[in-house]
Amino acid sequence: MKNKQGGFTLVEIAIVLVIIGLLLGGVLKGQELINSAKVKNFINDFKTVPLFVYGYQDKFRALPGDDLNAATHLSGAATAAGVTLLTPTSTSLGNGRIEGSYNSTSNTDESVAFWQQVRLANLAAGSASFSTPANDLPTNADGGRLGIQSTAPITGMTGSYFVCSEGIQGRFAKQIDITLDDGNTATGSVRVAAGPYSNKELTAIATTAIVDATTYIVCTAF
Question: What is the Cα–Cα distance from 215 to 49, expressed in whole angstroms?
């Protein structure tokens, strides 16, 4: 007697392939949603930081981080929060500029004091301790540093203040520029450069030279 050899029919194979296709489609769609959410978070950072500046100026008639009278404005809030108010050593306090680099971790830089002051002013969420600045400074959706400074960080940028966010993949950087600016990462108010940034103006990279999986620094001017 011959044994009947079992196997999958074409219909069964087709069903399995359809199921696999649906699963892969679901995974890809899920990743697409995650990436879309990241881009929205990056964009929200760039839109929100200027609001901290305007809100603080409206409240105290001073620039956060550069506030010459920060002790008067925020000592009560600092005491209530149980934190020590940072005192930038800059001799140019009150000059309308935020001295120090966006990625500084020195609690004597205005760019670091900026974050404590907007938090104590109840304009931004987060710890106002800054006993160890690196632990309290803000980061973006991918864990890269987010900050502000007054010195142009990338070639050709003009403005009073510059918000920079680092560790952003090229594919996201291009989407940010398309949404907020002119779609060219080497021109306009949004520019992209390869890091790291160390108080020296970086060279902007054109959109065509951006590598999707490589991480960059993205800066906006206002």
Answer: 22
Tokens standing for residue 34? 């995650």
Flag whether 56 is in a domain.
yes
State pLDDT tens for residues 93-137.
999 999 999 999 999 999 999 999 999 999 999 999 999 999 999
Q: How many domains does the chain have?
A: 1
State which H helix or E strand residue 149 sits in.
strand 146-149
- 117 lies in a domain? yes
* Alpha carbons 106 and 62: distance in angstroms, whole number: 21
Please indicate, yes or no, if residue 183 is contained in any of the structural domains.
Answer: yes
| Residue 6 domain-assigned (yes or no) | no
- The Cα–Cα gap between 98 and 113 comes to 9
Is-cis flag, bond preceding 196, omega within 30? yes
Laid out side by side, the sheet with 146-149 consists of 146-149, 162-169, 215-221, 190-193
Q: What is the CATH number of the domain that holds 59?
A: 3.30.1690
Query: Furthest-apart CA pair in the chain: how many Å?
Result: 100
Residue ranges, the chain, pLDDT below 70 = 1-7, 12, 21-35
Which pLDDT belongs to residue 58? 98
pTM: 0.85
Task: Give the separation between CA 187 and CA 202, rounded to whole angstroms.
Answer: 13
The domain of 100 spans: 38-221
